[in-house]
Amino acid sequence: MSQQVYNFGAGPAMLPVPVMEQVRDEFLNFQGMGVSIIEISHRAKQFEKVLLDAQERFRQLTNLPDNYKILFVHGGARMQFSALPLNLAGRSASKKCLYVESGNFAKLANKDAKAFGDIQVIASSADTNYDRIPAVDPSMIDQDAAYLHVTGNNTLYGSRWQTFPETGAVPLIVDQTSEMLSRVLDYSKFGCVYAGLQKNLGPAGTALVVIREDLLEYASPQTPALLNYKVCAGDNSLTNTANTFAIYVTGLVLEWLQQQGGVAAIEKINEQKAKILYDLIDGTDYFRGVILPEFRGTMNVSFNLPSEELEAKFLKEAGEVGLYALKGHRSVGGIRASIYNAMPLAGVEKLAGFMKEFESKNG
Amino acid sequence: MSQQVYNFGAGPAMLPVPVMEQVRDEFLNFQGMGVSIIEISHRAKQFEKVLLDAQERFRQLTNLPDNYKILFVHGGARMQFSALPLNLAGRSASKKCLYVESGNFAKLANKDAKAFGDIQVIASSADTNYDRIPAVDPSMIDQDAAYLHVTGNNTLYGSRWQTFPETGAVPLIVDQTSEMLSRVLDYSKFGCVYAGLQKNLGPAGTALVVIREDLLEYASPQTPALLNYKVCAGDNSLTNTANTFAIYVTGLVLEWLQQQGGVAAIEKINEQKAKILYDLIDGTDYFRGVILPEFRGTMNVSFNLPSEELEAKFLKEAGEVGLYALKGHRSVGGIRASIYNAMPLAGVEKLAGFMKEFESKNG
Fold it and tell me: Which of A231, A233, A292, B211 is the most exposed place for a label (fewest CB within 10 A)?
């Protein structure tokens, strides 16, 4: 290629360069076996080690308590939108499941769940176009509910829960797809967290699901075997042939993250990266952030230019200088810079420079 | 590596060498984009082309009639064991679904289905350790049933349906996981066929599902969105983030298969490869085939040696000369040579030579 490309795609997203190079270098010959990682059995001892290592690294990175299981479940986060009520609605006699609607995927999560429980949306920011995280008061959380589901970071908008609601005895479930391992969190507060791999972890097609052991006992008999978290936990995610490639790459990404100093270290860099873009947005009327400042996260920075024509021009010219995949989600429009863990500071600096120059030429 | 390795693993299995080399060569820079195929959006036009090309190549290779959809569904073949009755049991007022039990996976298929229909096993070869395909007479097929499910090729044993049963108006569903695209078949006879990718098609984690359009109308309301074939068909397998890497590699494998002359050409080579091993087995009492000769397929050749000790020695010495992953499935034992489309004739010839030498030294 003729120039360095910085990939701001929301997912499947860029992965750390050293990881990508290692995957390429050993693609035809994994650990001297003479065959590829994608050509060996999921039950081979070499793959078992890959899986166990990935789980152990995740445990170390999150300081995960011993009473939580780490699962790799087929289908990505969206599949869990169905699997969660199938596994957990049974905690409540009336199958009552609580949802907060803070964005597009939060809405999809409760839509997909409707076939499997009494789904109640207790708060929503739909009426303000998801420009905020809706307020949730403990009094809104029915203690008879099976769980409360929230979306930790809203990928389309960039808003996130700065602190999570106190839920009492009701397990808190967090979709961490676009922010897993981007900030230090106390996992003991969660009943279950999950993420599609394709943003901060690895290739697409699979989700990482972390679940407290006592929550494995409530699956509906109508749960497909491979979506039954108790079955997955019992077989350590090898009930059938796992997405071995995705788990392997995820393990390398987790190793890379440890080499960067872990979650606390990457969190600082993530804050620095987001601040560069938000400071620029706050310093001008030319760029307008999509969400209210107090709800800003560090993973997705969504903003608008003065007109759709200028946005189209921005995207075209950005692409020409190697700033790739900045187009906002089809349901939101505008510009979105996804700056996950793997995005280097230099990429954000280049984008900020481009934004300033674009404004000065087109302002 | 110091020597050529031939990988006889049952799956994830070896893929064609030119495909593997192309994946490696373009892993960091897909089509000059400066980013990897695993780092681009499933909605990028470049990935859409990958998906459409793979589907078109499959259609050409199978001479697939226009009224069939080609889907990529998360979770591999095992996930379809649940998805099939969820999608199709509703064709029958009593949700009656018929199964033939010709092996381990055929048994799992009806076990996983039990939560979703009135599952009836109309024939089984369990009492003879799956040494054959059980006979199915048209009179055994209740015309009120939603479907008849059979396992086209039984991976653990190597038996296959030489011809499929006539099912009248009842849709025939075939699990083709370990034989898809290995022989010419008339797809107009099938209601649905499916295969986990990780044997003849690509990396693990996803299934290719071919379904006749009129069968998309019967899904239970309790079908998870991503397992609903009508939803998948409507979104052309992009309801959520697909396993983009697996689809990409599968497309390359399909292109390679076209370059080999298509299914009819590879079928001849597959027959030649299987004949080499079965002729050797038939010519001695030292090696004993697991299945009756009239049920032999071309994909998996399972056999025993005179003792478990000799089998262990065989596996050890085979590994030392680069004949990899010949161990039989944990539930069957013995030796299994999986010789899918990608296994070159030279690999089979090397194995046959090793077998003869082993017999002469240890016979």
Answer: A292
* A188 and A93 co-located in one domain: yes
Shared-domain flag, residues B154 and B271: no
φ, ψ dihedrals at A78, nearest 5°? -60, -35
Statement to judge: residues A45 and A56 lie in one domain: yes
pLDDT recorded at residue B23: 98
Task: Characterize the bridge pairing of strands A192-196 and A172-175.
Answer: parallel
What distance lies between CA A297 and its chain's CA centroid?
12
Q: Is A78 a residue whose pLDDT tops 90?
A: yes
Judged by a CB distance cut-off of 8 A, whether residue B20 touches chain A is: yes
C-alpha A152 chain-centroid distance: 8
Q: Work out how many domains chain A is built from and give that number.
A: 2
Residue A1: inside a domain, yes or no?
no
Give the count of alpha carbons within 13 A of A39, CB side only.
28
Report the residue from A20, A42, A225 with minimal CB separation from B204: A42
Q: Are residues A90 and A174 located together in one domain of the fold?
A: yes
Kindly state whether residues B58 and B161 are assigned to the same domain.
yes
User: Strands, E, within chain A: which ranges?
Assistant: 6-7, 68-74, 96-101, 118-124, 147-151, 153-154, 159-160, 172-175, 192-196, 206-212, 288-289, 300-304, 323-324, 335-338
Q: What is the pTM of this model?
A: 0.98
Residues of chain A in contact with residue B42, where contact means CB-CB under 8 angstroms, are 12, 204
- 250-279 of A, contacting B, C-beta below 8 A: none
What whole-number distance in Å separates Cα of residue A163 and Cα of residue A184?
Answer: 11
First to last CA, chain A: 32
Question: Is residue B233 predicted with pLDDT exceeding 60?
Answer: yes
pLDDT digits (tens, 9 = 90+) for A234-267: 999 999 999 999 999 999 999 999 999 999 999 9
Taking CB atoms and an 8 Å limit, are A75 and B240 in contact across chains?
Answer: yes
Q: Containing domain of residue A158, as a range? A: 19-259
For B36, which of A20, A226, A330 is closest by C-beta distance? A20
Tokens of A118: 């009494």
Compare CB distances from A206 to B78, B116, B205 and report the shortest one's residue. Answer: B205
